[in-house]
## 1
Amino acid sequence: MLTSVDTDVIRVLGDPLRLKIVTLLAQETLCTTHLVEETGAKQTNLSNHLKVLREAGLVETEPCGRFTYYKLCPDVLAGLSEQFAALAESARTAAENKRACP
């Protein structure tokens, strides 16, 4: 069953810009400057979205001089993937179960 933490992560990933950020970070660790270039978002807007992703546990920061790099936390996504796989398996099993109407 999905927990409240899982549903929070799903909600966070429901934003198109955040999903794009996560998709980019799945390919490589990037700094804010790279993410601004790749997404076309304003730096302040991007920083707000990165804060939400950090608070949800989806990304970690890595300071490097005057830059901050962001990397994806794959375990959070893997856990969510396992939950969806379990739901899919349950749906396959329950496909024949039909509750009678009163």
Note: The CA atoms of residues 46 and 55 lie 14 Å apart.
## 2
Amino acid sequence: MLKRLKIKFIAVIMSIVTILFVVIFGLVLHFTKQNIERESEQMMRTMAFRPPASGPMHKPDNNKDNRQNNIRLPFFTVTVYESGEIKASGGDYFDLTDEEMLQKLVNAVNERKEETGILPDYDLRYMKDHNRRIKTIVFADISSEKAMIRGLIRNMAIIGIVGYVIFFLISLILAKWVTKPVDKTWNEQKQFIADASHELKTPLTVIMTNAEMMNDKSYSESDRLGFTKNILSTSQRMRGLVESLLELARLDNNRTLIKLSDVDLSKIINDSILPFEPLFYENNMELSADIDNDINVEGDKDKLRQVINILLDNALKYSDPADKVTVKLKRHSSECIMSVSGLGTPLTKEERVDIFKRFYRVDQARNDGQSYGLGLSIADSIIKEHNGKIWAESENGYNTFFVSLPL
């Protein structure tokens, strides 16, 4: 899939480059041709209004004429008198002694209605002048124009090929850079599916094994009752896993309904701590709180309570009973910061990042089978929905989870 995505991205980039090259080179070629034609016609117009030659086969001083008129293209002038006599004047660039050829040129021009045009068979541009009793036709050679245009096209082709190669290499780099987040998400999704399958495989195996043993007539009623209880407890655990997976899926797709309102975060935390106090007491652990009053945030009351429960449950499972767990909520300018801190196995720098990944568990030995490593991932998704941040720090043996929310 990623390979096809990269190919499509490169194809789009190269298509855009192709369109840009065609438009830019087309405009350059168009305006260059227009400019050359305009200069040629301006020169020819200047020649058309020069005084006519005073005698047959008159040859003016062309060097002087060229200097005076700033003429840059080879040209010659044909004057047709009322008597039908044809006179030609111009430089040594053309053979003006071939009267038959001159007559063909005049006839070719007379067949055309346009005052200015091109005779492609002779590579000449012409311009008629009927402002006097005599008829004057100025001819200019366009072979140099064609050579210039061909050279321009050749240079643009070289530039286009080099540009194509450069943009292709750039598009390869960009495709790799752009698809990097997609690649990461894709790998995480595959890992998530693999982990979820692994987590579901164990309870399903337990259920199937107990169901098979229930069908075995050699077991007593009390044994079968135990098998039933195992199936029920394992099914409940699996239901919790499935619900957590669905919760993550909804959060990922922004389909979870977040009911934003002005909530008293101080009260939510205090209310959430109350049901955990007996649990901490049963595990010979102490739970203390340092909560600033009247701290309000905009958020979903139920979702924020879920985050607090996740952090307290995490502290209950992994904190050292020899020390107390402390919950704090403090106001800091435009934000409030909640923290849950407890003594435990220090988290490394990598673990402080990985701990929010799905199915990640630091202490596998202390896993009671009720945790699937999804709680902190759910908490991370909820806090992001509230435009907040959640992170972990470890110092002096204390692991602290922080939650920052805008006031």
Note: The longest strand covers residues 335-343.
## 3
Amino acid sequence: MRSTYDCDVLVIGGGIVGLSTAYAITRAAPGTRVTVLEKEQGPARHQTGRNSGVIHSGVYYRPGSLKAQYATRGATEMVKFCAEYGIAHAVTGKLIVATEKPELPRLHALVQRGRENGIPVRELGPTQIAEYEPEVRGLAAIHVGTTGICDFVAVARQLAEASGAEIRYGAEVVRIDRRPALGAAVRTADGAIVRARVLVNCAGLHCDEIARLTGDDPGMRIVPFRGEYYTLARPELVRGLVYPVPDPAFPFLGVHLTRGIDGGVHIGPNAVPALAREGYDWSVVRPRELGSTLSWPGSWRIARRHWRYGAGELRRSLSTAAFTTAVRRLLPAVTPEDLVPAAAGVRAQAVLRDGTLVDDFLIKEGPRTVHVLNAPSPAATASLPIGREVARRALAALAGA
């Protein structure tokens, strides 16, 4: 029967989570035949390759949540992985800065959350902030020493190579025939058929669509949010990583300053609704995908609940002056001329029917299928433990097949 299948496990999606899953499967069960289908011509072309490159410590996430567990564990493992394979990285630490009095209780809550998650956190006053970042202003801050930066695209490439899986690029999935007694047959846009005993859905921005193609109801919808970045023309203004105190109502971390592994400084992102799943600027509009977002009841409930927040994000998207004002809260010396537009990213945010933004990683199973349905930031940081968990579930399905 084994010879009637092209592979044992078929992974859809060649981002860092899909490739980490393939890597984990072949490590846990050598000899397992794994194929990865990726619609782009190379790995990590979307969320993985368009984020700020930060290895998150896990300080933000609710104790006991998958994000907290996997980010804290994943940060340590990611640094070791990069060191083992010679991938550019650095453990830099970062500041989280309160610039207004109402933010101080939230900053203190982060101190407690960090300690509950086992993360060393140092509290700072204004003078101590200047010791780390002379140009940054704030009432108080915390320093998180375990935060770092790396080249996540290089990590994804190494995972692909080290997994030993067959990676097929330019292979867009258009149809899935999933049969609980047999497995799944997947057809790609070029007419190829791939038969597998178990299917893993790591399709990121398209994961809910892939879930529906298998016949499973994901119970959520991906609502894409574009994050727009600038490059700082005067990188000497920022030494490392500087974040604002996040709004607890949103899973976004706000406009922050990030000195990357290349030495440049990125500023951003803001968060505005994208008009396509891969809508990296306002000119990219895909009516079918936009219709999917607008037809989902949760999208309208988000809009009604958080329209003031959204209006501010939209204003910063359309006005460099407004964006500059937001940045000046942390970095008073910045001017509009210092902000050079950079490549944007799109966050694959899962939204429930009632308008709840899914705050934790979300992994569901169907017959012979594992779906990763919510894996935005800090999924790149957490990709190694996420991959092991998805691999565990896939191999359990394989054993029962």
Note: The mean pLDDT is 95.
## 4
Amino acid sequence: MREDYQALIDEVSQLLGTPATLEGRDFSLIAFGAHEGAAEGDEEQATGLELDAVRTRTILQRRSTPAVRAFFESFGIARASGPVRIPPDPAAGVVHGRICLPVRDHGVVHGYIWLLDDGELELTDPRLAAAMAVADRTGAQLAADARSEERTGRFLHAALAERGGAAREEAVAALAAAVGEAASGPLVLVAVVPWPEEEDPGAGPLPTALPRLAAQCVRDGALAALVRLRTPHGLEAARTAADRLLRSAGRAATGEAAGGAGLTAGLSSPRTGLTDLPAAWHEARAAARAASAAAVPGGLAEWDAIGPYRLLTSIPRAAGSLPDPSVRELLRPAHSELARTAEVFLDCAGQAGRAAAALGIHRQTLYYRLSRVERLTGLDLDEGEDRLLLHMALKTARLS
């Protein structure tokens, strides 16, 4: 949580004597506070209200679900200019009512401040008027940050271009100035695909409250997020950011968690500056493609760990191109079990015992299937070059 927003939400909590939370207009959690004088984490003692499932999920997962968002928006909070009282609805998981303070700037909503409602606070209470003044200051800050993030996103968008000459160099310099000290520290690019391309590059609503985020934009059908690392080889911050992106985008599209709606993410190798961003962008997108091709659990892959896909994702393929003739028959749906057998066998470096164990079959069954693979492909699996051709053809087919 950013300290400036935390200070604002603490001010609201102190004014009203009840814990408050600040969410962006996309319902991502920005800051939350507890009643002054309560024991750490003892929000129930502070308010006399037991946390309901919606409040707990928002704090733990840092985002409300689409269903919860639709429930609250049905009370007109996106159009309101003053406090809105929302009654409890246990069927929606809202055990306790809420008071919503819209966070606006020049008439545009940028977020919401939420209060648990014990029914004792009147909407005409002068303290709520004071809290709305804090909400207005919060809206001004969110609007300013949004403009800054949009500008930084445009710099990142231009800096990722493979070609660009002086224009790209200027964008890199502007990006370095915008992100400050982060420009010289260890960085990783995260790619999430597919992501709808905005008509205005680098603009449009993007996920908020990502940990250690330096910049983000949409380019080449993917979301690019530049994440600061704590150490040159510690990817935890980038993995966390990628996981949150996958979860939030997946839920927004289908209600699913990570990997939903066909989303995958990839991490580039760490970088110590901004001059190599186009190469890092290639790595991140390639890793995301590999995550999809190899059905990586969680939908996240790292460039340094995708093996042959590092080479295969660099090979341009013409639209509608067919796989190598030797494997076309093997790749038909009717032979999917044989194709998987061959791939696992080759992944296991041709070790029959390991392959049979991985497939859960008897070794004789493995040999029988491999003989059928040889007949279908015309390849000799005792020959190294034939093995290499088959292995690469099977991996390439996954990238289609």
Note: The beta strands are 20-24, 29-32, 84-86, 97-105, 108-117, 187-193, 213-219, 222-228, 264-267, 300-302.
